[in-house]
Design a protein that fits this description.
Glutamyl-tRNA Synthetase, domain 3; Rossmann fold; two-stranded parallel sheet; RNA-binding; 19 helices; mainly alpha; about 475 residues
Length: about 475
RNA sequence: GGCCCCAUCGUCUAGUGGCCCAGGACACUUGGUUUUCAUCCAAGUAAUCGAGGGUUCGAAUCCCUCUGGGGUCACCA
């Protein structure tokens, strides 16, 4: 049984786009193999905890149609799925490790740890804990009994090659001399990530640990933990890290990173996911546009490239435009309406405008910029029309004479007028466009005029001239 | 700095020893369609495959060194 997971930690305001990427890969891989996709909340850092983040993360994930099979609010066979609800489990496992000699108590102060580290750094050594407490466990335990704060550390053996296989990169070996005696249990009684992730992944029967590349260097600690517990290793696959244009790890200072931001901007979930699928992975047939269904059928972990891709919002916008063009009218209308629900757009105009805007939008939020003229008259004009009074007067007369207010009829009559007046179409219609919208760029004029209605058009032209 | 990962057009990538003096997509440029914009169509610019050594009849593809980029070195995940 394939079981995958993402372990978001509720320490930010929302799901990070990198986590969404990881989620999509994990979800897809699980579905491909008829497995389960688990979302486990890793809230062991009490100092960085953000209120409400947990719900936000889950709802964003669901907004992208990535539904967990097991998580905090739906439960599952290995509940609970929130680490703060599993404290007893970690405590017990940490104690097991103490008994087996793989871990030990430590009561060193922050000051001592700092000085040990800076001393080693000065000697150009890897800054590590010096195992001071390990040699005096009896005394340490006595001090703990009389109330001393303590942590539990992993007792990492010296000079040992830890080797594991990464499904994307192959074999990776790291010598334990580069590893610190990792704290497993913090003095507040909470486990650190390293203990919790190993214990939970094992207990929750996670078969494939698919996570970002930044975890590679701590994987040896996890491997050592699995071995200390006598457990089988899961498969590991480390995904490339999404990058800023300057190649550094995607960060909110340089890029929008919250997954819901893209939704708020009017990116479609399917488009964002499709774009994400192309990060480090390519369709075997070279296809660029494909949905989750197809991704699931052709996806393989082995095809993921280990190179860190730059997250290019320009290409995302193009792709989003492709998805918008494929939307059915009603569907597109509903999405626009949802985005502008505060403004309560006139439903009739909205409906009529859809065919006019669909090919012009890259994002749903482009709508107002393109179609705003259909809802309200211009207040400013991008071009002065003072010298066009006469022509506009004639336009008004022509429009007034039209009995059947249809785009093609309007267009025909206006072209006749332009011809009679010996004004080139491009000049003529640009003048009219400005008069009606104030803008040089608008949806097709005839259709827009039909939507606006005869009276509104005439009123706007009189106003402009 | 130590350790680890990585290296093909500006960006995302194809490519796993000969079909590649490197293909596609985005972006960009030009032309066509068009009543603006967009769509659509056509064409073009753009990588001496990071550099240097090997291996081989033959290397983007294998090996080594260097360089560059990234990640990581917490009682954060």
């Amino acid at each position: 049984m394939i079981r995958t997971r993402i372990p978001p930690s509720p320490t930010g305001e929302d799901l990070h786009i990198g986590n969404l990427y990881s989620a999509y890969i994990n979800w897809t891989f699980a579905r491909k193999h008829n497995g389960k996709f688990i979302v486990r909340i890793e809230d062991t850092d009490r100092t960085r905890l953000v209120e409400g983040a947990e719900n936000q993360i889950l709802s964003t994930l669901r907004a992208y149609n990535i539904a967990p099979d097991e998580t905090i609010d739906i439960g599952g066979p290995y509940a609970p799925y929130r680490q703060s609800d599993r404290l007893d489990i970690y405590k017990k496992h940490a104690e097991d490790l103490i008994v087996s000699g793989h871990a030990y108590f430590c009561i060193c102060t922050k000051e001592r740890l700092d000085s040990v580290r800076s001393e080693m750094q000065a000697k150009k050594l890897v800054p590590r804990y010096d195992k001071y407490c390990l040699a005096r466990q009896d005394q340490v335990k006595r001090e703990i009994d009389s109330g001393a704060n303590y942590v539990i550390r992993l007792n990492i053996p010296a000079d040992t090659e830890v080797v594991f296989t990464d499904m994307i990169r192959g074999e990776i070996a790291i010598n334990t001399n580069n590893l610190d005696d990792q704290v497993l249990m913090k003095s507040d009684g909470f486990p650190t990530y390293h203990l919790a992730v190993v214990v939970d992944d094992h207990l929750m029967k996670i078969s494939h640990v698919i996570r970002a590349e930044e975890w590679i260097s701590s994987t040896p600690k996890h491997v050592l933990l699995y071995q200390a517990f006598g457990w089988d290793l899961p498969f590991f696959a480390h995904l490339p890290i999404l990058r800023n244009p300057d190649k550094s790890k995607l960060s909110k200072r340089k890029n929008p990173v919250w997954a819901s931001w893209y939704l708020e901007q009017g990116f479609l979930p399917e488009a964002v996911l499709n774009y994400l699928a192309l990060m480090g992975w390519s369709h075997p047939d070279g296809k660029e546009i494909f949905d989750a269904e197809e991704f699931t059928s052709v996806f393989t972990l082995e095809r993921i490239q280990p190179v860190g891709p730059v997250f290019d919002i320009t290409k995302l916008e193009w792709m989003n435009g492709q998805y918008i063009m494929k939307l059915k009218n009603d569907n597109l209308r509903d999405k626009i309406q949802e985005l502008y629900k505060e403004n309560k757009l006139d439903l009739n105009i909205l409906n009529l405008s859809i065919p006019l805007v669909r090919e012009r939008m890259k994002k749903l939020s482009d709508y107002w910029n393109i179609a705003g003229m259909l809802f309200e008259p211009p207040t400013t004009y991008e071009k002065e029309l003072g010298d066009q009074k006469e022509l506009l007067e004639k336009v008004t007369q022509t429009l007034e004479a039209i009995s059947e207010w249809k785009a093609d009829v309007i267009g025909e009559k206006l072209q006749d007028l332009a011809t009679a007046e010996k004004v080139p179409f491009s000049t003529f219609f640009m003048t009219l466009r400005i008069a009606l919208s104030g803008k040089k760029i608008t949806p097709p004029l005839n259709e827009s005029m039909e939507i606006l209605g005869k009276e509104e058009c005439i009123a706007r032209i009189k106003n402009a001239a």
